[in-house]
Amino acid sequence: MPETLLTSRTTLGRHPERGAHERETINQILDEGFVCHVGFVSDGQPYVIPTGYARVGDELYIHGSAASRMLRNLEKGIEMCVTVTLLDGLVMARAAFSHSMNYRSVLVLGTASLVEDAEEKMAALRAITEHIVPGRWAETRWPTPQELKATSVLKLPLAEASAKIRTGGPKDKEEDLTFPVWAGVLPFSLVPGKPVEHEASAVHEVPEYVARYSRNAGK
Amino acid sequence: MPETLLTSRTTLGRHPERGAHERETINQILDEGFVCHVGFVSDGQPYVIPTGYARVGDELYIHGSAASRMLRNLEKGIEMCVTVTLLDGLVMARAAFSHSMNYRSVLVLGTASLVEDAEEKMAALRAITEHIVPGRWAETRWPTPQELKATSVLKLPLAEASAKIRTGGPKDKEEDLTFPVWAGVLPFSLVPGKPVEHEASAVHEVPEYVARYSRNAGK
Q1: What is the pLDDT, as a whole number, of residue B4?
Q2: How many separate domains does chain A show?
Q3: Is B200 part of the contact surface with chain A (CB cutoff 8 Å)?
Q4: CA angle A58-A59-A65, nearest 5°?
Q5: Per the domain annotation, does A179 fall within a domain?
Q6: Which domain holds residue A154?
Q7: Chain B 20-39, residues with CB within 8 Å of chain A CB atoms
Q8: Min CA distance, A93 vs chain B (Å)?
Q9: Which pLDDT score, from 0 to 100, does residue B2 have?
Q10: Does residue A162 sit within a domain?
Q11: Does residue B159 sit at the A interface (CB-CB below 8 Å)?
Q12: What are the pLDDT digits (tens) for B14-46?
């Protein structure tokens, strides 16, 4: 049986057929995405903030300015939720009621801890850079001790998580199938455009990892 | 002076130059996007759930199954946060530390109320359908009283909100500019693919609003 990350809090009440709790499914979605939405509570108010991330084994790393409200809150070890959503398409049914979207999303619950070890912190920043632009880290000017100090890195264990996936065409009721309207799916993907070189770039040849950027090269 | 939606809770501590509170800027971002991430707290645990939405004037509408945990929680009028994020590009600087993303995001804070009036509920469902696929509502089989009952619609006033926007190239320190690495931006956009007709579609001609789908047609 595959390892699951199921708890009562990550069980789907609605559409249980869309749920998945296997680590492999969760990891695939986390590895294809690179923007997550982080939820936390401050003074009773929930906030949802987009940020980059990387998965390393069974940990999720996020980072930010040591001065940011989000990082200062989360490093206290408060409850958080990290959600990653990949939009795959718009599902057009006959009934307005049956319209939907195809997507793959992961929700991770838990509390984060501040990465204090300098070596682990550098490795996490490398992982985040490499997760977002594979091949980039080796070419960049690496963080100085001062820059490391100005950056907070948090890790959240991938211990309580669920994936939710919808694929395929519209699911109308039988009696709606003959309704005279086009029905189907309009697929969507996040597509890189033409790289825009910075005016002062010291190198003019676009690196392969930029020119051929793809989120699902391994597929 | 343009109307602003600024409060102490939506003031940016970090990168204030990226902040905007004018209703027009906020509306533009909300109108280009169609997936939001909704944050709320249940039993002390924050949750972040992706869903569709539409803006109508100064209200944001979301909907879902009347049986869903999210809707059942939010209709009580608890504090929530709705965040919409449009990813515009990856910013590659010379310093790993200066890497960033170009994005436009909106964060809305407040409490939602359940839409109980049948006419407003139908209008909200129409608005959500039309926001996600302009032109679709008129062609679909409209909700029955039973379907309306099975759907909850919530409205959140756009009263306390902020936008955060990053555009342009990398912002390295002066002394890093000559570092020998390509620097620039890889733009991103959410692009529709080829429509996939449902096997049982009663109509085979792809409608114009599907074939020419664009999130920023008005630009």
Answers
A1: 73
A2: 1
A3: yes
A4: 170
A5: no
A6: 8-169+190-211
A7: 35, 37-39
A8: 8
A9: 58
A10: yes
A11: no
A12: 788 888 889 999 999 999 999 999 999 999 999
Any long-range contacts for B24-31 (C-beta under 8 Å, 24+ apart)?
B25/B163, B25/B165, B26/B106, B26/B158, B26/B161, B26/B162, B26/B163, B27/B55, B27/B158, B29/B84, B29/B86, B29/B104, B29/B105, B29/B106, B29/B163, B30/B55, B30/B60, B30/B84, B30/B106, B30/B158, B31/B55, B31/B131
CA–CA distance, B219 with A30 (Å, rounded to integer): 33
ipTM given for this complex = 0.95
| Residues on chain A touching B93 (C-beta within 8 angstroms) | 140
Read off the CATH number of the domain in which B91 is found: 2.30.110.10
Q: A with B: how many residue pairs have Cβ under 8 Å apart?
A: 293
Residue A184 lies in a domain: no
Q: Name the average pLDDT for chain A.
A: 94
Nearest partner of B38 among A107, A69, A161, A77, judged by Cα: A107
CA distance B71 to chain A (A): 11
Alpha carbons within 13 angstroms on the beta-carbon side of residue B25 total 19
Residue B187 lies in a domain: no
Which tens digit of pLDDT belongs to each residue from A147-166? 999 999 999 999 999 999 99
pTM of the model as a whole: 0.95
Chain B neighbours among A 82-111 (CB < 8 Å)? Answer: 82-83, 85, 87, 89-90, 92-97, 99, 101, 103, 105, 107, 109
